[in-house]
TrEMBL record:
The keyword Transcription applies. Pfam families: Autoind_bind (PF03472), GerE (PF00196). This is Regulatory protein, luxR family. Residues 243-308 form the HTH luxR-type domain. It comes from the Bacteria.
Length: 310
């Protein structure tokens, strides 16, 4: 299956893309349908939920961010409910009705392995059901956000037209019906990597209008500002979860090696401290790089400095 994108000719020339779908499979045979059901069960990522209040004591304050005026206002909110009211108010000003946020943990092959949803930002346009039903495996919007950082503008009318030109394969029919019933007609989606991790966050905006012409450069800029501000906060929470999960998977010797690495010790110095050979230290570091999804010592040391000490 292949997907295409076309650059919108917006007045300010932003690198915004309008989604177009192509390469849908034709109607599958009965055996192919059975295989698709099996593949869907296998390909469905694990889903986790998190609450802001539960993670406040585990995050690094420098990761919360305050680079934008909106991020500062969100940080100054007294609680989650107040932050949600601020976000909803800004969404209405921009013209969208919903904001969806999730973070995807990728496996070694770059496939979604686990999904992290903030309970306070569950949205019909990017909900757990979307993944449980397997829509993510065929939706070009998700594919684009998972692999690139450019914002993509879409509307349901164009998606449906492209789907019909491709022979109306049944795999996406239910998704379109759910979008219609939920009042989701157009939107904007983009993805952002979380540095030094195998995590990637996806931010999605949706509105009832069935034509995307109203999503101008100005709307895109305001949406990106709001989405990046929300991302500054939530990426800190997901980093904390990732540190906790990574630490739980490590052995006691591996944790000691990471502690020494974070302190700036060389392989020889670590070997002397642990009474093992430098060759063994190198072996453990290679295994740690694979397990943590990083490619070099610097990235591993960065992660080691973020991990909980107990």
């Amino acid at each position: 299956m292949t997907y295409g994108t076309e650059v919108l000719n917006e007045p300010a020339g932003l690198a915004v893309r309008r989604m177009a779908m192509s390469g849908y499979d034709r109607k599958p045979s009965a055996s192919a349908s059975e295989a698709a059901v099996t593949a869907r069960a296998v390909d469905t990522p694990d889903i986790s939920y998190f609450d802001e209040a539960e993670l406040l004591g585990t995050i690094r304050r420098d990761e919360l961010g305050g680079e934008t005026h909106i991020a500062a206002n969100l940080g100054a909110a007294r609680n989650t409910d107040e932050r949600m009211r601020l976000v909803r108010g800004m969404l209405r000003l921009v013209g969208f009705s919903e904001l969806g946020y999730l973070t995807v943990k990728l496996d070694a092959q770059g496939r979604p392995e686990r999904l992290y949803f903030p309970r306070s930002y569950l949205s019909a346009n990017l909900a757990p059901h979307y993944f449980e039903a397997g829509y993510h495996r065929h939706d070009p919007r998700f594919a684009a956000a998972l692999t690139g950082s450019a914002p993509h503008v879409w509307d349901r009318r164009r998606l449906v037209e492209a789907w019909r030109r491709a022979g109306s394969p049944p795999g996406m029919r239910a998704m379109f019906d759910e979008m219609r019933d939920g009042g989701i007609g157009s939107g904007l989606i983009f993805g952002l990597p979380i540095p030094h991790t195998r995590l990637r966050s996806i931010i999605s905006f949706a509105a009832p209008s069935e034509q995307a012409g109203w999503i101008t450069d100005s709307v895109v800029v305001q949406s990106l500002t709001l989405g990046l501000s929300v991302h500054q906060r939530f990426s800190a929470y997901v980093r904390a979860i990732n540190r906790r999960e990574s630490a739980a998977e490590l052995s006691a010797p591996q944790m000691r090696i990471l502690g020494f690495l974070a302190a700036g010790l060389s392989d020889k110095e670590i070997a002397l401290r642990m009474h093992i050979t430098a060759h063994n230290v190198d072996y453990h570091l290679r295994r740690l790089r694979q397990k943590c999804g990083v490619t070099n010592r610097t990235q591993l040391a960065f992660l080691a400095g973020q991990m909980p000490t107990s």
